Amino acid sequence: MPNLDLLLTFLEIYRTGSLSAAAQRLGVTQPAVSGQLARLEEQLGEPLFVRSRKGVAPTQRAAALAARVGLHVDELRGALDSTDVPPALRGTVRVGGAAEVMSLRVLPALCPLTRRGLCVHATLGLADDLLSLLVAGRLDLVVSAVRPTDEALLAVPLIDEEFVLVAPPAVAHTVDRERLEADPAEALAHIPVIGYAEELPILRRYWRTEFGRRPPNPVTMIVSDLRAVLAVVAAGAGISVLPRYIADPALAAGDVVQLHQPEIAPLNTLYLATRRGAPANPAVTVLRDHLQRAAQEWNEL
């Protein structure tokens, strides 16, 4: 069982993305930090970080460990502090993400932290735009549907979204089931689709993954909110592909039906992205760890 000192060192490395920055935060030498990390990795039997000239990147095991122990370690630190509110929960954290996942999962999950003194400013938008704001220092953390490629950013997996193809029941009855099994793209080609963006990114990915081609369907509506897409599908305007966590209530109520049953559910990973290095506000790392812990209870979206 790793001792508290090893876990403290691990969390500082994880949060700063650098052995030297972690050493500075802890007030020890870099060789001491390297030695403690080596001891922890030896105890766990696997590496926790991948080294590079830019610093260190966490492995999936490291992300899981940080999510499991981060909040507990911070609470122990807070219990030893003389103030009523742990310093790490003071101030404001600027968080960005898509409107749907932020509204239905992320922001409700942050309420326990706001009750402890944290202020959250949320910006809703598309992943590329939000990641640009993150690089520019105008956001502190982004829940991103695409993996960041900018070397200034550090990203860890948060959770997988599962996608389902849904239709109103009346439209589903017009589909020939045998033809759907034999050639699904052709069987569905006559049905209008509702897209999230003009490029039909979600629909296009589903069609290519499951049917091996782009969707040939006519487009009847584009709306940049997946909850609105669901409402339009339920109203009978056509079919679309949605994350399961958005579609599930309507599926359970019978307002829409799942039109296609893939052998393996199509998934898309959501990432937690921050800038590399120690944040000016330590509440950013507390919030990141809290979200990873909360996501473990969401299962797949």
Automatic annotation (TrEMBL):
Checking Pfam families in the record gives: HTH_1 (PF00126), LysR_substrate (PF03466)
What keywords are assigned to this protein? DNA-binding, Transcription, Transcription regulation
Annotated HTH lysR-type domain residues: 2-59
Q: Indicate yes or no for the key word Transcription.
A: yes
Fetch the InterPro entries from UniProt.
Answer: LysR_HTH_N, LysR_subst-bd, WH-like_DNA-bd_sf, WH_DNA-bd_sf
- Family stated for the protein in its record: Belongs to the LysR transcriptional regulatory family.
Designated name of the protein: LysR family transcriptional regulator
